[in-house]
Design brief:
Layout (H helix, E strand, L loop, with lengths): L8 E2 L11 E3 L1 H7 L4 E3 L12 H12 L6
Antiparallel strand pairs: 1-2, 2-3
Length: about 70
């Protein structure tokens, strides 16, 4: 469950040139253990809401190079 007005923060892994922009809500994640994630360029689109454990596993896999380019 995402709070009605989450405070969004751009991911440190997003590029600064306007592409590949991901935002998440750390305050919501802390409060609910659900990590709201969205595309910063499409703010009215769907919000992904994995639980904190699933999100941490995904980030670990990305950092570990488990996904192809």
């Amino acid at each position: 469950m995402t709070p009605p007005n989450p405070s969004w923060v751009k991911s440190s892994y997003s590029s600064q040139d306007g592409g590949n922009c991901l935002e998440w809500s750390p305050a919501s994640a802390t409060a609910t253990h659900i990590v709201p994630v969205r595309d910063s360029k499409l703010t009215d689109s769907a919000i992904l809401t994995p639980n904190a454990h699933a999100w941490a596993s995904f980030i670990g896999a990305v950092k570990g190079g488990q996904f192809g380019a």
